[in-house]
Amino acid sequence: MPRLRFILPALLLAAAASAHAAPQYVEVGTPLPRFHLLKEGSHRYLRYLRSADGNTALDIWQRDIHFDGKQMQIRQRWDAVGKAPSVKRLESTFEAGTFRPYTHVRITEKDGRKTVEGFAFAAGKITGMAELQDNTQKNLAVESKEAAFNFEADMELLQALPLADGYEAQLVFYHAGGAAAPARYTFRVAGSEAIAGPAGPVDCWIVTTDYNVPGSLSKFWYAKGTQLMVKQESPLPDGRTLVKTLLN
User: CB–CB of 241/234 below 8 Å?
Assistant: First the structure.
């Protein structure tokens, strides 16, 4: 019994240390352990703003995954609602198995105008695609000390990580053409919760990040079985919350 009194606290301390281990750095080009959970097909999400006064629908967001040999393609489309309808389309290519980004094209149609933006990702630099017709980002050249993942495919990338209690991942992301430079972001599994899904309750991992803005915590709910994102909530500076919820 006396010996057990010393062993038990040591085991509890070891468990606590394991639960709060340092974030795992996920390097671009590293095989992702749950990449196999990404399947060809389409999913649609409703995006809306939630406030004390009610909910305001923004758009229907479709994400399509397609595999072609050693490459994966993700296509996205936003169809906005309201008085000023608009359409935004993204087409991105990646290395299958690692999520290493290759190219990223963004086309926005709004108020009768069409804007084309195209980017190429490399180990130490993100540049504008010179060969893409009407590319408004041809002259872009952003240096990155570490190879960066494509921020506009973060949902699927998180799906390919080994989510579990206490897991933390640190990844370098860059939003192509954005004002922010490539940077490391930390994502934590903060717990689990069953929430409503399109076909009934879904047992989910809760993943959180502050996007390097302390005090502003975004939450993601990933289904434990498929690790598909079911819901996301992100606070906005004006007090409203941006919600993305799976439709099908």
Answer: yes
Local structure of residue 181 (DSSP, 8 states): P
Buried b (16+ CB within 10 A) or exposed e, 159-192: bbbebeeebbbebbbbebbeeeebeebbbbbbee
Task: Please give the residue range of the domain that contains residue 182.
Answer: 24-246
For the chain, helix, strand, coil in percent to 5 are 10, 50, 35
Overall number of domains in the chain: 1
Residue 12 lies in a domain: no
CATH number, domain of 240, equals: 2.50.20
- Residue type present at position 113: R
| Average confidence score pLDDT of the chain | 92
**Rounded Cα–Cα distance for residues 162 and 227 (Å):** 9
Q: How confident is the model at residue 102 (pLDDT cuts 50, 70, 90)?
A: very high
With respect to residue 3, please indicate whether it lies within any of the assigned structural domains.
no
pTM for the whole structure: 0.90
**Residue 9 resides in a domain:** no
Q: Which residue has the tokens 């439709």?
A: 247
Instruction: Answer whether residue 208 is part of any domain.
Output: yes
Which of 240, 209, 246, 216 minimizes the C-alpha distance to 228?
Answer: 246
Q: Is 167 helix (H, G, I), strand (E, B) or coil?
A: coil
Instruction: Give the pLDDT band of residue 83 (cuts 50, 70, 90).
Output: low
- Give the Cα separation of 205 and 209 in Å (integer): 13
